[in-house]
Amino acid sequence: MQIEHFEIMQFLSAHPPFNALTKRALQQLASEVEVGYYRAGSEILHYGESISNLYVVRAGSVEVYRRNGELYNRISEGGLFGQRGLLTNRKVRFPVMALEDTLVYCIPVGLFEAFCDEHEAFADFFEADDSGGLIQAVSEQADNNDLTTAKVKTLLLRELVSVELSRSIRDAARLMTEEQVSALLIFDPSKPVSDDPEDDDGQIVGILSDKDLRIKVVAEGLDTNQSVAAIMTRELTIVDSNAYVFEAMMMMLRDNLHHLPVVHKRRPIGVIALSDILRYESQSSLLFVKGIMEQQSVEDLAHYAQSLASVFVRLVNEDANSHMVGTAMSVIGRTIKQRLLELAEDELGTPPVPYCFIALGSMARDEQLIVTDQDNALILDDTFEPDKHDGYFAALAKFVCDGLAQCGYKLCDGGIMATNPQWRLRASEWQAQFEDWVDNPKPEALLHSSIFFDLDGVYGCTQLASRLSELVAKKAKIAPRFLAAMANNALRRTPPLGFFKDFVLEQDGEHKHSLNIKRRGTAPLSDLVRVHALAIGSRKQNSFERLEDIKEAQLLPPGKVEDLEAALEYIATIRIRHQARKIEQGKQPDNNILPKRLSEFEQRNLKEAFAVLDKAQSYLKIRYQNKAILK
Amino acid sequence: MAIQGDILSWPNRFAHLARQSNDERLRAFYNAGVQLPDTPVSEARFVALDFETTGLNHETDDIVSVGLVPFDARRAYCRDAKHWILKPATPLHEESVVVHQITHSQVREAPDLDTILKELLASLAGRVIVVHYRHIERPFFNQALMQRLGEGIEFPLIDTMALEHRIETNRLTWWQQIKRQSIPSIRLADSRKRYGLPYYIAHHALSDALATAELLQAQLQHHYTLQTEIKTLWM
């Protein structure tokens, strides 16, 4: 029995984008609606909570805020809100309050997505909202880089440690030592337990901390055979496990507390200490980088680098955009190299001639993620004499590359490492090598050396590296055959889209039904961007910064650079999230995405991003290859 | 029906009726139980119910259509809403056709209440029934089942009109009460307007049920708390 909610249908049919729908579609929509009433001044959407509906204002009006409290929009009868959260990671980006008494119709996300897929006009409405759904989705993510969205429960790494009220102070102190905690909760077994689990706040009656032992026991010369009841703090300030870390920190600062019992549904589940918050903060990438420089040996460094994965996961969970994640991971990688080089020089002595250690590929582009090879090389001053000096640099290279391997950066399969004598050259030899690549381009040779065109000086005499980049920037833009060869290489890997714009997936093997998002997505995109960047003589290394230069040079038709930026950001974000999820599941992070695990909406956006790559590749072919043929 | 004033005994009364009833469908309805009187509003499950009838006398008139919308304090759920047009046991008067717009030809094709009773009761089971103006749905439902099954039906009820009467009366000052100043209209559309709720077409069972659900949500938000126990609302 299909019933007609004609009040709802009639209303929706009078407002875009619903007015473009057929009667049948409206009927379906109306029959899935949930209706909610909000009194003036009440909160409808809370920042950061998950969102599963598109909201239509049926009566009344609401105000949409930015997170800094600034009014963003006011929406009245017939207006929509919540779509931004639905289009990105299904979290509320802009909190919403009822301005007047307000009645809303809520459309479930599943239906919203299905309608976007089935009804073009409906989808267009959300895409036309600003400059395209993909760009919109991406820029929303950028806005949401907040370091204060972690919940208190993420800090609880251990079981609750508690002691009975009647036990002695000495017993309590022993337990604290054994368990290595700085505070204990005290429970009273005779305290009645509520029958109603909702009402059950456990039997906790107090808290005892290191500080209590110092001030109330040691300083006062108190008998440690007395029971803990004598010295525990009875006034408990508690924090809910769903509160934000930031709030817990504020509570501690306000009341000058070092410990907070954490409750879940009123029941204590643990204690967090101020030091937990500080430790959590130290996982932030900035402090992590600072810590690298303090490590005193390769072993220490390797041990320290073990938390690299959690730093990465945390950045991702804080919704950092791909540029930020890539930069942070690259800065960390670079810092580890710098520290290794310092340690190497400590061990091997002062270098006999000036040198520069360079990073190549993704690290040079500031696009490093967690699964990565080490690609590096050495530029030596022209006074270098192999017989006299190479012993030193071979040892230096081995020290650094082995150290990197211990820190989790795999040795490069292609042997592009400073340990390879082929990539330990004098500055003038490097110059000759680059000139040869540009002047006598052979696609096969360039295929293996394209990585050298993303180059960054990491340590030592970095002018040696800058001079090489300068040379490339000057020569490449006036070398059409070189550009054609690079373009040709950039077209070798195509996006995984079939003729009907479906995903083309691996048919068998270990990665059946998956697609390699690096090989078929981010890599061909950065290859393509590199060609354009070389063509305009840009000296930037990062793909987004290269795109900025390309935009300024007006190399591509209007709008194309923006499309590429959005596509790169979207594909990179899917890749980053995939890797973070793998790490969280305790698995080895990789690049193999199973599209069916993505929501329909993500699939749609991903296809759109691949389509951008596809078009951009066709353009690349026309722009550079034809030119080469004509010459 | 005298028992219905005795709210504390609703769970007992349902248990008793479940044993007494001779109709399987009614037994299932009673066995689903009634929500405990001290259930807070935040956890209560409601269903708004509206009948259109051939006239106003439950002794002589019958039900022509039924609309219902399940809801709670946060949301009304259209996907679980129901609407039926029924063939009444008594003829359709012209006057009522003007009111509910259901025509003779629609009614001729329609099923008898007995045919849809199982589904109707299943939709109501375990929920607190909410109506606007309590003197229609309960007596008509009871009478219609008396006629068809030889036994009636009992259930607790929240009447948004009665709540609105209470709210508006409390709003009057002592002096206004002495002067017997009258309260504003508590009809469905007028009540809704006070809460900023939109105008819905009246006398369509489904629209009226949704309108009633929204009205209770609004009344709860404005005049009660989420901890209010449902026994203070039903009758």
TrEMBL record, chain A:
GO terms for molecular function: [protein-PII] uridylyltransferase activity. It comes from the Bacteria. The keyword Electron transport does not apply. It holds the Pfam family cNMP_binding. Keywords: CBS domain. SUPFAM superfamilies: cAMP-binding domain-like (SSF51206), CBS-domain pair (SSF54631). InterPro entries: CBS_dom, CBS_dom_sf, cNMP-bd_dom, cNMP-bd_dom_sf, Diverse_CBS-Domain, DUF294_put_nucleoTrafse_sb-bd, GlnD_Uridyltrans_N, RmlC-like_jellyroll. This is CBS domain-containing protein. It comes from Pseudoalteromonas rubra.
Automatic annotation (TrEMBL), chain B:
This is 3'-5' exonuclease. Gene3D superfamilies: Ribonuclease H-like superfamily/Ribonuclease H. It comes from the Bacteria. One of its GO terms (molecular function) is nucleic acid binding. InterPro entries: Ribonucl_H, RNaseH-like_sf, RNaseH_sf. SMART domains: EXOIII (SM00479). GO terms for cellular component: cytosol. It comes from Pseudoalteromonas rubra. Keywords: Exonuclease, Hydrolase, Nuclease. GO terms for biological process: DNA metabolic process. CDD domains: DEDDh.
